Amino acid sequence: MANHKSALKRDRQSKARRLRNKARKTRVKNLVKSVQAAIAERKPEEARQLLRLAQKTLDKTAAKGTIHWRAAARKVARLSRKVHALVSAG
Which of 2, 51, 60, 78 has a CA-to-CA distance to 86 between 20 and 30 Å? Predict the structure, then answer.
């Protein structure tokens, strides 16, 4: 356990950041799953709306530094490709 005042503060900050990052990552995972579920159920309009929300959340999460910006871009690209394939097919 930390003994110095600065180390105690750093420990508090780390715990707060960890919880914040965990919440953001969980939100991203849930949104990605919801888009994939809409694709699986063949609901193009719902998938398109959820994709928009997922993209916004992924971009915000990447901007905050919780996930890498390239990881966010990769997830958006893959989801977009699937949604556009569904929309053009149906």
Answer: 60
Is the pLDDT score of 87 beyond 80? yes
Residue 48 amino acid letter:
R
- The CA-atom distances, in angstroms, between 1 and each of 11, 13, 16, 19 are 9, 14, 17, 19
pTM of the model: 0.88
- From 3.40.50.2000, 1.20.58.110, 3.30.70.3300, 3.40.50.1000, which CATH number describes the 5-89 domain? 1.20.58.110
Q: What is the mean pLDDT of residues 60-70?
A: 98
In one letter, which amino acid is 35? V
User: Of 89, 90, 76, 63, which is closest to residue 35 (Cα–Cα)?
Assistant: 76
Phi, psi of 79 (to 5 degrees): -65, -45
**DSSP 3-state of 73:** helix
